[in-house]
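Good morning,

Both structures are done.
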Amino acid sequence: MATELDQAHSAGIVTKVDTAEVPSAAWGWSGESRRTFRAAGWVVVVILLAMTIGNHKGKVEDIYLVGFAALLAFTLVRDSFLQRKPR
């Protein structure tokens, strides 16, 4: 027994952004700043590496901190290379 679904009818896709929900859309910008996110990422890398300096005796914490910092740095460098490459 097969059932058929009724076709959905819509008035179309609304592309206008409501300025009450996104106030910055009133002056033509409604997105994220890649430059800000990259700068914040590098700040986090520096903070993670600075956290290796401390009074802990074990080195397991250092391995995790350096590993996460390296992973984040790799992601940031990869993103900057992919952004320059034409699609």
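Second structure follows.
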Amino acid sequence: MITGLDHVAYVVRDLDAAVDGYTRLFGVTPEWVGRGGGVRQAWFQFPNMALDLIAPEGEGPFADGVRAQLDASGEGLWALAFTTDDIAGDVKLMNRRGVPASGPAPVSTTADDGRVREWVGARLDPKATGGLRILLMAASAQPWPLATPAGDAPITELDHVVVVTPNVDRALAIYGAKLGLDLRLDRENPKWDARQLFFKVGGTVIEIGAKIGAAPTDAPDRSGGLAWRVAEPQAAQARIAAAGFEVSEVRAGRKPGTHVFTVRDAPAGVPTILLSAEPVLETA
């Protein structure tokens, strides 16, 4: 079964520029920079998932696919990858549930410092997942090393991924019935003209957003951005502004006792907000 979000992958044109940008934004340095399959990748590992940046470098199907997406759509989301504790079983399950899955197959990359990383993954057919690439990754026997702090008030973990859908029923079928994620909340907020579905998966959340009352279509789902956690929002906002980013003021969050601010020009154009942790309630 799916146990968590393994990583979120974005394609970029210039890996070095993207690494520099996210290092300044996150206040951490990547745990891994390497190559394999005709691409270069940088891996920012957090306690509950990783951000994987990918840029084409050589030849091969992987590199060709990345170039095709960059040419067609520009920089942006490449894939959502979920961790599974039984990848072979889940591949069979996905196929039985009408989600064609290829694999599982071994994959490896080599870091610039010579380290080799190996894992086993499977790909789901985007035609059956609302147009987004979704991967399954075998759970690692050993956790990957965390990204190294490189500044004050660094990002601590991912809070949630936002996916925007034109078809709520399709999203419910994909993420709930087929992937088996835990739907914790389904609500409408007329103030934002938004219906929101919140699927809990391990230590993160997949938020599905849609317009209230809009007629469903077969158009593909799209990325709505990422929401990250920080321990000290005021200090994080000051650090990120000093690093050259355009940031909003720190404002009260939707949940009492929380604070949030927006980064308006995050690398690769990813819509990005930063949230403080929810306050701990004292008990008698």
